[in-house]
Amino acid sequence: MSCGEPHETDCSEVLDHLYEFLDHEMPDSDCTKFETHFEECSPCLEKYGLEQAVKKLVKRCCGQDDVPIDLRAKVMGRIDLIRSGQAVPDQDVTHDAAPGVSPSQATASEA
To answer: Which pTM does this prediction carry?
Structure first.
């Protein structure tokens, strides 16, 4: 997505790193660039607002659920692999997370 207007920070860069911005996981200098971009670009500001609202809704509805320790470890391990640029195996980490639950039961419960 791009608004078609030239900006110091390209729309695609902003959208590619939107969740890092939302989660406060980027340097202050990059945050400043993104804030400036949002002041100039209505489509990106709208996308930011939508993603921020979804994030708040998920937190409100699901924020009290305890995450199994082994699932958290697997997810964090995959994030570390992705950040390091290594190949990530194509498997669903949730199927291994619940001992005693077959993949078909896990899939049925996800539906």
So the answer is: 0.56
Number of domains in the chain: 2
Range of the domain at 82: 66-99
Ordered DSSP codes for 12-40: HHHHHTHHHHHTT-S-HHHHHHHHHHHHH
Residue 3 belongs to a domain = no
Q: Which residues contact 79 (CB under 8 A, 6 or more apart)?
A: none
Each residue's pLDDT tens digit, 35-80: 999 999 999 999 999 999 999 988 888 777 788 899 989 988 888 8
Question: Which ranges of the chain does DSSP label H, i.e. alpha helix?
Answer: 11-16, 18-22, 28-40, 42-62, 69-84, 103-110
Single-letter amino acid code for the residue at 104: S
